[in-house]
């Protein structure tokens, strides 16, 4: 990727003010990536701002990542010389910042989603990377950025969570984790903050939603389906709702786990998970995208209507 590293460095070389944008409903890889890039750019003498393009505040446990408290929730992209999107599979995932990003002359896309359409002026995309922070670690090495304890913490947060506590990935992920640990990252505390501790209301939500789990046939596939409707989840932070997804990833006798999340009445964020099926292709076919074994899309209508849409699509494959 030597030419791409160089092109990415050139894109920011004379930019003074740079926006670093993570995806809406951010997870630890998105927030960790934003924080790491902002800290790295500041080290290089740039003025950088971290942004999430939606007004709803992200989950409190993500504030344990160094620099997360500085990330602004915005309804539009401010005037900047360059934009770096991190962990955004499509430009739409930048939320309220997306329209301005789509027309901006200098956009660097850093991402690891297989479905990414390369929407940037320069694209650092590696679908083999376990997390976006893995790609950033390589780019920082090219740029000569010193990996401080704070940057290491942010990079490790994305790596640990996007690999399910290192349950899948390449040997390189363990090598990177070791390097970051040597920078002083308290990996036990990171695990507690981002993976282990759950609030009592979150456990109650989990029980409520999973108690309605249904196994449904759809073409050649068996689906484990749960619905998190608006009335059930409206008072919960996004991270609490998104945590439900991991419980349908590997259901015995089920090919694909599906979670329908109604964040806005009539609008569903649909998460697809599997340990054997390429759900990225399915999500792309329905207007979304993602990883091979973890993807999603947006659907509209009632519970019956959004499920019928997915079932029809799978039956037609």
From TrEMBL:
SUPFAM superfamilies: DHH phosphoesterases. GO terms for biological process: phosphorus metabolic process. Residues 99-128 form the PLD phosphodiesterase domain. One of its GO terms (molecular function) is nucleic acid binding. Pfam families: DHH, DHHA1. This is Bifunctional oligoribonuclease/PAP phosphatase NrnA.
